[in-house]
Design a protein that fits this description.
Number of helices: 25
Shape: elongated
Strand order of the largest sheet: 3-2-4-5-6
């Protein structure tokens, strides 16, 4: 048995709906099933999702406040007012700022942009920035990707005589700012799509301002949309489909330089390029300092300057990676020290000197490590505040639960699974206490086992190049439209091996009938030693195409793996003191013949159980739900069967160490016994001390053979032995050699060794399987 890391949850579907989609859209049943499980269960919905020519953008004027905001901007342009775009320092904020700036420049507005410094100003609008804007003569401020929680700051701007337009997409608080217009999808009942990124809202604003959809900006809009992890459905899907296509042939020198510095060619650009190459580099700028250079790069048209700016950003990105690595190590150490019993359901770690710009990344890494909601705070003792970010898991809404703590959170905001906050240092413990109380009320133990949703159960033979090409019709992939996760069950695992540095990764072939499917599991290298020969495995993974030397083959990228049946591991021949067992299990049951042996193994596996075969049934030991190591040969076949009389264990490891071997010192023939008896009769008594060596030499026997025959005769009461002299006794009846305990024990030992030491592994598998079947038929409890 090999346990999966996560719970596998298959998505529900409707067979009739699948059949209808497959027939009407001329697509495979597998693709039809994927569409239905993702909610596209009508021909119209599925068609609009699959085919770009059937997609369209919604009317921007369905957004509340749009008409008021447009009128105010055109008034500012006509009256030559100075307009300030107030942005945010992440990739969504940078792209939002850039798109609105380019739009207003096109309309010949007097416009500048301002992005607050994460470290000196914090998140969102602030009074000092608005005061500076007023002093500089700006009369209209437009926020992008921020501002929905800035009620107090907007009131301050109003007092200074400035107008504020808010464009945002974050969760609206109870008290909304008194701005002249708020453009927010979730505050617009008539707007059909609520999940736009900040830059998506800006794109709608730009569309209304220009009287057309400015698709020339979609490559920028797609960056913020992907990087901000909004659902890639509806308008977001169309934005990214068109944006990625534009990015492949972009003429913007800043983006070209960014692609080049990340080692990406334009023809290989996908949504993953944005998520793993462009987005993190743009984010790195605002995480470590002022985000303005990121906007400057995006807007840069000079190739040489763009390259220089990109190189500077790459340096920051590498600094960010090193910083995240160091902080993550410190945070993990702190978690282990603060909560050694793992009782906290919500993890909060805090430290002075932690960079507030990367606490969100560190929080994400801790969620991956511990699978619990996590808050990472940077402590500033001088200001008396703790500032940080939170990431969560399914079942615990950060925004909802942080709202319950708003009395100790002067600044917070975010979504269900991600949030940011500032609070007083002395309130950190109170926040930990409250959030853990809330988690206790709503979360079960099962919620803390990672959940993997399965899109499709299929056969290994179904994962073909054509199938993968069809799956790619669902791209671009992202939030609410992830790459399909496939489940392949009960296939043979062949050619299992560890690859990569230190054997960190797994490579295996999945055999289904006559089909072989290559599979690779990054970080699953240890599993190679936890899959026994002949096991059937089940995998979760994503299908991809492997291209090598001009050949294209389908492959599965493994995300999780399990074996649902008991396994037999053949480690015969290994010396017990060199035994290495999987690190995934801390407790094993070692079965042996002598309780005084293997002291070094007791040191190596201190919480494991060491027990003699014959004592298993007398002790309360759960054999079935543990891993059992058979260190020595049992005294008999029945002895072993008694151990597993209630069922086989999840894993059985065969060592079968045996110091004295009988198989290769066979029993003397009956002819040898007759000759020896005759010699004893002719020399009665026979002096072993004097003549044994000569006897062995003459008859070609070994000393142990002579000693064995002597013991057999003694058992049968054919002889007496005194002072090394064998005296033959008179016999009244013949006795079969098998009546001798010595003879019978030798026979049994040879047969035991033949069965357990020298048989093939598949023969032993059959032996144990038959044992399991036998007990099952007799009504015994089995695993």
């Amino acid at each position: 048995m090999l346990k999966s890391k996560a719970r596998w949850k298959p998505k529900l579907s409707n067979h009739q709906e699948e059949q209808l989609l497959s027939k009407e859209l001329q697509i495979s049943p597998l693709l039809a099933k994927l569409l239905v499980t993702r909610g596209f269960n009508t021909v119209d919905a599925a068609s609009k999702f699959l085919y770009e020519d059937q997609m369209s953008f919604h009317d921007p004027f369905l957004l509340e406040g749009m008409d008021i905001a447009i009128d105010r901007v055109f008034q500012a342009i006509e009256e030559n007012e100075k307009i300030l775009i107030f942005g945010d320092y992440d990739a969504d904020g940078v792209s939002s700022t850039s798109v609105l700036y380019l739009t207003l420049i096109e309309l010949e507005a007097k416009v500048d942009f301002y992005i607050p410094n994460r470290f000196t100003e914090g998140y969102g609008p602030n009074k000092n920035a608005f005061k500076w804007a007023n002093e500089q003569g700006y009369s209209l401020i437009i926020t992008v990707d921020t501002g929905i929680s800035a009620a107090e700051e907007v009131n301050f701007a109003n007092e200074l005589g400035m107008d504020v337009i808010i464009t945002d997409h974050h969760e609206p608080p109870e008290e909304l700012p008194n701005a002249i217009a708020i453009i927010h999808p979730k505050l617009s009942p008539s707007y059909p799509f609520k999940e736009l990124a900040g830059v998506g809202v800006v794109f709608k604003f730009a569309s209304a301002l220009l009287g057309r959809e400015p698709e020339e900006y979609l490559e920028l809009v797609s960056i913020g949309t992907v990087a901000d992890l909004v659902p890639l459905v509806d308008e977001n899907r169309l934005i990214v489909k068109k944006g990625v296509r534009q990015l492949k042939q972009t003429k913007r020198e800043g983006l070209r330089a960014l692609l080049e510095i990340s080692g990406t060619t334009t023809d290989s650009v996908t949504e993953e390029t944005i998520g793993f190459a462009i987005g993190p580099r743009i984010n790195a700028v605002g995480r470590l300092g002022d985000a303005k250079p990121a906007v400057d790069l995006v807007l840069e048209n000079d190739r040489a300057l763009a390259k220089k700016r990109a190189e500077q950003i790459e340096i920051l990105n590498k600094e960010r990676q090193e910083l995240v690595s160091r902080m993550t190590e410190e945070a993990i150490k702190q978690v282990n020290e603060l909560d050694s019993s793992c009782s906290n359901k919500v993890i909060i770690v805090a430290k002075e000197g932690w960079n507030a710009g990367v606490v969100g990344i560190v929080a994400s890494k801790l969620v991956d490590r511990f699978y619990k909601p996590v808050i990472v705070l940077s402590i500033d003792h001088e200001k008396g505040i703790a500032k940080g970010s939170a990431r969560s898991i399914e079942g615990f809404s950060l925004f909802e639960n942080l709202t319950k703590c708003k009395d100790i959170l002067p600044h917070f905001g975010g979504h269900t699974l991600a949030a940011g906050m500032t609070l007083a240092i002395e309130d950190v413990e109170l926040l930990r206490l409250r959030l853990n109380e809330y988690a206790d009320q709503i979360m079960t133990d099962e919620d803390f086992i990672p959940l993997k949703e399965v899109d499709l159960k299929c056969q290994a033979s179904e994962v073909s190049i054509s199938f993968i090409n069809e799956l790619n019709m669902l791209a671009p992939f992202g939030m609410h439209n992830p790459k399909p996760v496939l489940e392949i069950n009960e296939v043979d695992a062949l050619n299992i091996k560890q690859i990569g540095n230190g054997g960190a990764h797994l490579k295996v072939q999945l055999k289904d009938d006559v089909t072989f499917l290559d599979a690779v599991g990054f970080g699953f290298g240890h599993v190679a030693n936890e899959i026994a020969t002949g096991s059937k495995i089940s995998c979760l993974g994503m299908a991809s195409i492997n291209e090598w030397n001009g050949k294209r083959k389908p492959q599965l990228m493994i995300h999780d793996i399990k074996v649902n049946h008991w396994q037999l591991f053949d480690l015969r021949g290994q010396e017990p003191h060199r035994l290495t067992l999987p690190h995934t299990e801390e407790k094993f049951i070692f079965l042996h013949q002598s309780s005084n042996e293997y002291e070094n193994l007791k040191t190596k596996y201190p919480i494991s159980t060491f027990v003699a075969y014959e004592d298993v049934l007398n002790l309360d030991i759960n054999i079935q739900n543990n891993y059992v190591i058979l260190l020595d040969l049992p005294s008999s076949e029945n002895n072993l069967k008694e151990v597993f009389r209630n069922g086989l264990s999840e894993r059985i490891y065969l060592i079968f160490n045996q110091e004295e071997l009988h198989f290769f010192s066979p029993i003397p023939s009956r002819e040898s016994f007759k000759k020896f008896y005759s010699i004893l009769a002719n020399t009665n008594p026979f002096d072993m001390n004097m003549y044994e060596v000569a006897l062995c030499r003459k008859m070609g026997w070994k000393k142990e053979q002579v000693d064995f025959m002597t013991k057999v005769f003694f058992d049968l009461e054919f002889v007496t032995i005194e002072d090394g002299k064998i005296r033959l006794l008179p016999q009244t009846e013949k006795k079969d050699l098998s009546l001798s305990n010595t003879y019978a024990k030798k026979l049994a030992s040879i047969e035991l060794e033949r069965l357990f030491l020298y048989s093939k592994c598949d023969e032993l598998t059959t032996f144990f399987q038959n044992m399991k079947s036998h007990f099952s038929e007799n009504g015994e409890a089995l695993i």
